[in-house]
Design a protein that fits this description.
Strand content: 5-15%
Number of strands: 6
Number of helices: 10
Strand order of the largest sheet: 3-2-1-4
Helix content: 40-55%
Distance between the termini: 34 Å
Length: 231
């Protein structure tokens, strides 16, 4: 309905000349972020044999499982809807865990792909994982407090707005002109290097990765503003 009134709309269906469902690209970005985090923590970005717990198996979570299955990761899933979880578990050879049980699971990667604020005072006492890398928005209940708590617990947290940027990147290609999925894929895959840089910078500075990502994003916005001011 908005597009009926203005051309300044992106994220339209393919039949309307847009990029369609962005969830496969969001999932690709999360997968790239997982591999970057694995490279930082384990020294290799291979996810083969890694225990990955995906919280929420909607559109993004399901596409993410496709990548993880191809890498032979050991998959655990939970979802608000038991029937959906059962079907997904059968399709991907995953083990279903309870919605609360997931926080006590021994895992290599915890991947929140549903509700936000799942990293909080209570859950961070229980989580047994060296990596948090998921698609959910606002994963840290408090960015400063719980970002720092991840750091104290030696949990490598991949900033949410960075790792889940793939869908927005894909949609943004519509603004470039005609939609080009190959270009979008290349840009989303480049998140690997950006995320690895953020994690390494956070490690060197002994600061939480969310702060580093926000600073880098803010600097880019300021730099672009200065460039545009010279037009």
């Amino acid at each position: 309905y908005v597009a009926m009134e203005t051309d300044s709309v992106a994220g339209m269906p393919i039949e309307r000349g847009g990029s369609g469902d962005p969830s496969p690209f969001t999932a690709l970005g999360v997968y790239m972020g997982m591999k970057a985090a694995a490279k930082k923590v384990f020294g290799s970005d291979s996810l083969a044999g890694k225990r990955v717990a995906v919280q929420g198996v909607g559109n993004v979570g399901k596409h993410l499982l496709e990548y993880l299955k191809k890498e032979n990761a050991k998959l655990f899933i939970t979802d608000y809807y038991p029937d959906k979880a059962q079907a997904i578990a059968q399709a991907f050879g995953a083990e279903i865990v309870g919605k609360d049980e997931i926080y006590d699971l021994e895992m290599d990667i915890y991947s929140p792909c549903a509700l936000g604020a799942t990293l909080n005072d209570e859950t961070l006492k229980r989580l047994k994982t060296p990596i948090v890398a998921g698609a959910a928005n606002n994963q840290l209940q408090d960015e400063k407090r719980h970002g720092d708590l991840c750091l104290q617990k030696n949990i490598t947290y991949v900033p949410d707005f960075l790792i889940n940027a793939g869908g927005v990147i894909n949609i943004a290609t519509e603004v470039q002109g005609s939609y080009n999925p190959k270009w979008a894929t290349t840009q989303v895959e480049a998140l690997y290097g950006t995320i690895l840089n953020v994690l390494e910078t956070a490690d060197k500075q002994k600061r939480n990765a969310q702060e580093i990502a926000i600073e880098l994003a803010s600097k880019r916005i300021q730099d672009i503003a200065r460039i545009k001011a010279t037009y």
